[in-house]
Amino acid sequence: PGPQGLLFLNGGPQGTREIVSIGKMVSAGGETFFKDIEVLRFGSGRRLLHYLAPYGKLEQGETPPAEQGLAPGSRAVILLHGVDRERSGRDLLPRPIVGSLRNEEPRYLLPLTPRPEELSALRAPGPAGRSRLGGVGLDTLWLARARIGAYGQLEAALSLEILMRLLLPFGFLNLGLLAVALGWSYRLVSTGRPPAAPYLLVPLFPAAAALLTGAYLKVHRTLAAYALLAWGFRPAIVGLAVLEGAILAVMLLVLAGRVSD
């Protein structure tokens, strides 16, 4: 398994731009491979090149041209020329749809503007892409957020995911304290045999807890999105930290009141 549904804006040669779609990325044995690659290069208001490649392999390229607006140094490239292991002597090459790939990219290389460590965070927008971000580490999300706009994606979507990751430990702690307070309130204080009626409600507890947790996270996502759009990323972190501290204080007071009863 690996990141799926990658989509980003890439810098092409001579000031052109490229829309790159990658179906799947897999890292194994210190190397990175790609599957189902589609590239659309455009410039001057028209399509210049459009091709599909079944497979690719990440390689380290040469210093990028200055006109592409990239920082000097090595640049990662995807090698699109593969070998078919099932059929001897047959190569796996990209299939052009618009334009001539041999004239535009005779070495079958796709230079990448994003750094390799940023690729896993460049998911296609929408609910499916947002759910796929669950497998991306917080460090990768934080690294990609600074340049996500240059890759054709909204910074707000990635920033919201980061905020929710930061809020999850507070949510776990607050809901845990609430569960302890409720459990203490409805504990059995008599030494006799408890009535049978409460046992009928036990199967409902997991469903009620799931609904409460879902509502709690949904409200927090809404508040985080509002704070992000209204204040910006760093002020939103401060504001949400204050909010979580206030909720934590309330939960501690509720728990203290229940224990003292």
3D architecture notes:
The protein has 261 residues and is of the alpha+beta class. 42% of the residues lie in helices and 24% in strands. The chain contains seven helices and nine strands, in the order E-E-E-E-E-E-E-E-H-E-H-H-H-H-H-H. The chain has helices spanning 101-104, 127-132, 138-145, 155-185, 197-201, 204-231, 233-260, and strands spanning 4-11, 17-28, 31-43, 46-60, 76-79, 82-83, 91-92, 95-98, 109-111. The strands form two sheets. Strands 1, 2, 3, 4, 5, 8 and 9 form a seven-stranded antiparallel sheet that branches. Helix 4 packs parallel to helix 7 and helix 6 (204-231) runs antiparallel to helix 7 (233-260). The longest helix is centred in the middle third of the chain and has 31 residues, at 155-185. The radius of gyration is 26 Å and the shape is elongated. Residues 63-74 have low confidence and may be disordered.
Give the topology.
Blueprint: E1 4-11, E2 17-28, E3 31-43, E4 46-60, E5 76-79, E6 82-83, E7 91-92, E8 95-98, H1 101-104, E9 109-111, H2 127-132, H3 138-145, H4 155-185, H5 197-201, H6 204-231, H7 233-260
Antiparallel strand pairs: 1-2, 2-3, 3-4, 4-5, 4-8, 5-9, 6-7
Helix pairs in contact: 3-4, 4-6, 4-7, 6-7
Question: What is shown here, in short?
Answer:
With 261 residues, the chain is α+β, with helices and mostly antiparallel strands.
What portion of the residues fall into strands of 2 or more residues?
15-25%
- Uncertain runs are 63-74
Number of strands: 9
Would you list the SSEs in sequence order as H and E? EEEEEEEEHEHHHHHH
Rg value: 26 Å
Structural class: alpha+beta
Query: Helix content range of the residues, please?
Result: 40-55%
